[in-house]
Specification:
By secondary structure, the chain is mainly beta. It is built from 1 helix and 11 strands, in the order E-E-E-E-E-E-E-E-E-H-E-E. The strands form 2 sheets. Strands 2, 4, 5, 6, 9, 10 and 11 form a 7-stranded mixed beta sheet that branches. A 4-stranded antiparallel beta sheet has the order 1-3-8-7, with no helix packed on it. A hairpin with a 5-residue loop joins strand 5 (46-52) and strand 6. The termini are far apart.
């Protein structure tokens, strides 16, 4: 069973940066994509950026384009996926979730929320 451990959330002022990290372990051959989602107050959970575990494909949704960058580091028995966020805004405040997908693409995972496993989430607060 895939296990996801997130870290890196916290408090930041507008214009600041944060780097979220997700360590994923317990992969199967069917786990092909890891992604970052968020849920801001009063809204549905939305995809931000997703990345393939087997090649270089990535996908960014509109909220994540230009300010967020996803990267992946494969180890022997785990994968670490990071989301670098810059120029943060108060509307970026929310809970950020790492997720693992089955046999899917980064685009499908991010846009259609094709997720098999969710992490517990890490809060991000952007305040003045």
């Amino acid at each position: 069973q895939v296990q996801l451990v997130e870290s890196g959330g916290g408090l930041v002022q507008p214009g600041g940066s944060l780097r979220l990290s997700c360590e994923a372990s317990g992969f199967t051959l069917h786990t092909t994509t890891i992604g970052w989602f968020r849920q801001v107050p009063g809204k549905e959970r939305e995809g931000l950026s997703c990345i393939s575990t087997t090649d270089s494909k990535t996908w960014y949704t509109e909220p994540a384009k230009e300010r967020f960058t996803i990267s992946r580091d494969n180890a022997k028995n785990s994968v670490t996926v990071e989301l670098q966020m810059i120029n943060l805004k108060p509307e970026d405040t929310g809970v950020y979730y790492c997720a693992a997908g089955g046999i899917t693409t980064p685009q499908a995972m991010c846009v259609l929320k094709a997720v098999d496993t969710w992490g517990q989430g890490t809060p991000v607060t952007v305040y003045s």
